[in-house]
Amino acid sequence: MTDKLKHILEHAYVNAPAVRKIFDQAGLKPADIRSAADLDKIPVTSKDRLVEMQQSDPPFGGFLAVSLEKLQHVFFSPGPLYEPHAGESAVMDTIREMFTLAGFAPGDVVINAFGYHLIPTGIALDQTFTEMGATVIPAGVGSAELQVRMMLDLKVSGYVGTPSWLMTLIQKAEESGLWRHGAIRKAFALKKALLSAEPLPPAMRQAFVEKYGLQVANAYGTAELGFLAYNLEGGLNMRLLETSIVQVVNPENGQTVAAGESGEVVVTTFNETYPLIRLGTGDLAMNVDPAPGKSRQGERAIILVGRVGDAVKVRGMFVHPNQLRFALGGAAGVRGFQAVVARPQNRDSLTLRLALTDDSVDRQALSDAVSAGVQSVCRVKVDAVEFVPWSEIEEKPGVILDERTWE
Q1: What's the pTM?
Q2: What is the rounded CA–CA span in Å between residue 156 and residue 375?
């Protein structure tokens, strides 16, 4: 990876004015970056900043590193962002690796339910499937009855798209009676599914695997960067792919966080057409590293917890509403909860306010359980647990209330 990193940095510095400006303003040259660990020297470019740069220097913000004549497609993704493609392999490499992990093979007949309109996902997956010898049905989202009929008639063996749309198709098939008494297993050839673009709830995944007999791969990625991480077994960990350099960094200073800490997912691609160096995705994740300083990227994982802007920093650690929801999700007897961050005597304090379903709950046991859960997930100690009426939580909406004052 070191040689690939050296090449893309030199190429980007010479051919992409925006990258050269970022380096020059930081007092850096490509030769100063000798390994992935040195990337922390380069400032992070947020997606919001990328939008601003495209608007001030249209259309590509100075990141295009090839001539316009070489472009095959220009996509337009939410942001809004223009995304140039010139048949480069970087994004496609992430898709190829993900297809292999998901079990797709030549001869598969795949229904592609990702969009083909303006965004790159549908057509990029389509091209990669046909390149590997699969047959693609370019379905997008819509016309569930028609898609179910095509899946039957064409003996579709694979699905790529969102988990919610796959469940819609399955439910449509159930309504027709096909899934009753195992008939769907005989009528449908569907065996594997690559799901992305939205969360995959554990109960839905379990239904896909146990009730409908599907092999499920869940992938995380972005339109600009391709696939970044995946999960084949269920659970929260998303193992990192090695087709890009993925870091988890402190949003305030851009430095890589330690194992077990949360930060922003920041990515450096090997895309010679559109070299995004340390692009901040805006996604907040926990860094899972079994052997800090020794593990390869493919041995590490992330746990996605939400968006950076929704997080609150408490005693040096980022706490996100989704982390709290996960930590308290299994607590019996809790109707609702709220975290309150205050700063008495110049020290951050974290108080959990719990509204109960009934008063018979063992409050001490519940306090101990939720405190341990939050500390395990968020790595922040809970200072106090308060039991309040549900009406008090309704009066001040929000999962986390930051009541600190800085004087």
Answers
A1: 0.86
A2: 46
